[in-house]
Structure formats: C-alpha cells, structure tokens
Fold this protein.
Amino acid sequence: MTVTDLQALERDYLMPTYAKAPVEFVRGEGCALWDSEGNEYLDMLAGISVVQIGHSHPALVEAVTAQAARLMHATNLFYTEPALRLAERLSEGSLGGKVFFTNSGAEANECAIKLGRRRRIGGEIVVLAGAFHGRTMGALSATPSQAKQEPFEPLLPGFVAVPRDDSAALHAAVHDGTAAVMIEPIQGESGIHPISSEVLAAAREACDDHGALLVFDEIQCGMGRTGDLWAWQGLGVRPDVITVAKGLGGGVPVGACVTGPAYGDVFQSGDHGTTFAGGPLVCAAANAVLDVVDDPEFLAAVAAKGVALRGGLEALGVDGVRGRGLMLAFEVPEAPDVARRLLLEQRLVVNATGPDTIRLLPPLTVTGAEIHDALERLSTAVR
C-alpha cells in the first residue's frame, strides 16, 4: 500500500485524533528508521521517549520473543515471575515501596490520583501550570489546559493549579485538605521545562507540613532520560510516589505507579485493578530494558551525550535551549513547519510541541556520530 492508500483507510476507519505526517515507517534499528519507500531517517524522538534503547534492540527482541513463545497472558489472579521480578527492581531502584502495574502513563497517573484520594478522601490535588499528565478523565483533570479540558467538562473536581515557577504560591495552595501535589520534574508536552529546585523543595516541605503525598510524574523524564535512572535522583528532592511508563518497555505498553515504603499498603484488595497490566510479556520486555539502562556507566554516557547535544544546539545559535540529559528543546519560529521540513527534506525525526518549540528525545543509545549528524541536519533546516 502507498501512503495515499493508508490515508484513505485512515479517513474511513480511524477517529481523527492525530495529525499524521505523510510517512509510513516499516523498520527500525538503533536510531535509524526506514519508510515504505526505502528512505532512511535518523530518529531523534524515540517514539516520544519510548524507544529508550533504540529500535529492535537485540536483547529486547530476544526477551519478547522468548516470553511470547512461553506465555503472553495469565491475569493478575495468578503469579508470574517477570512481573514480580520487575516490581522488585523498580522498588529497590527507586523509592523502596510497592508497585502497581499499568498499561500506560495516563493509567499510572490515575493510580497515583486514586492513591492520594484513598488516603485523604475528598482531598485536593495540586498541580502546576503547563503540566501534562494524560488524557483519561482523572489525568486530564490534572492537566490545566483550557484547550484540552474544555471539550470534556465537567471534569473530576478538586484540582488546583498554581504557576510552575512560584514556590510561594505552591506552598500556600497546600493545606490539611490536600491529598497530593503532582509534578513533572521536567515538563515534557509543554516544551521541556525543568521545574526549579526551589519549587520542588517547596512542594516537599508543604507536603511534609500537611501530610500530603508528593507525586513525581516521571513518565517522560524517567528511565535514564536525564542521565540518572530517575530524574528525582539528580534533584535533591525525594517524592513519595513516582509514575513511570514510556521508556520502561522500550516500545511495548507498560507503566507503573511506585510508592515509598509508607504508602505501599494504602490500596486494599478490590480498590484498583486492570486486566492486561503486569502481564508476563510486557514485564519481560521492561526487565530487558532495565538490564541495559540501569547501569552506572550507561547512565554516565547518557549525561555526557546530553551535554554534547546541548552544546551543539547552542553552537547553532538557536534560542531557548533547555532541558537535562537527552531531554532537550529549543525555540524556532514556525516550529511545526520546521519539524515537517526536517522530516521530509532532512530525514530527521523530531517533534514540535507548540508554535515555537522543537523537542529532542533521542534513544539513549544514540552515538556521538549520530548526534553530530543530527546537528548538521538541524543546522540546514534552521538556516
């Protein structure tokens, strides 16, 4: 089929929720993608921070293939070894509490919202302006964007938004009726905006003062993206709960809500559930990704490559370079048009998060040579 044929099928059979580029990808390896016409592309988006260890990584392919041949689904009414092993690794490698598996990042955030409300029934959830926590109804209620929320009102009540750069406003918004404060340590969908250490510290202090949960949404910034396994580990502020997804599965749909020790038993039997999450196939995949990413030398290399990419962007003379590790953005006029030209003319996959922001989220396995190549292609388009 040609792309034109696929576009016709889309018009007839897919709900029009995505504005797709006129490219059909059919194969990937490492940081390379190939379309249906045989053109090769350099991927600097990783499926929006999903393909964490590159396309078709041999260890991930082997793990998924072997598990599929043994058992793909058993339901959460029974034990499977991949899920329990993954839960142990996520807990021991982060907050030391307990894990609830999900199919996606939005579902992980729904779990965190329910966890906060289960501890403090009717409690408010404080969020930051510019946040994006998902599109399911609870996660959407935590995403203070009129354009995203208005078509689906009335939303879940009890969410309070404060400016993302005002520590005093955040502290003042938290009180004894607050269930949780929910923060992306680096906001992703709004254009890669790191939250300041002052705001994070204020959130921690306010939660401690009033007994609220501090939840860090690490769905986009976690799993090694910043050069630490979890973004909070490089920030000096420890949350009570983290939510993870995207890069956790390296391309298969798996997420998790992970608690600190004090909050692992808030949910009781029947409080929450899911049919597919925590299945042996996706957990085997996530274990394979962790085998690669959860390594000090690998993470140090990610940090170094992030410095190189950032330096290269600054050398291009573009405005507003920001982010941490391999989670970076810069500003350019007419960013959606620039992203489209990069895709179709330079064969470079990036993403525009708004009218003036280009986002870069390459696989963590990107090489120095590929970073140099990407900067050359960016330079041509930016000029």
Notes: Residues 71-293 form a domain with the Aspartate Aminotransferase; domain 2 fold (CATH 3.40.640.10).
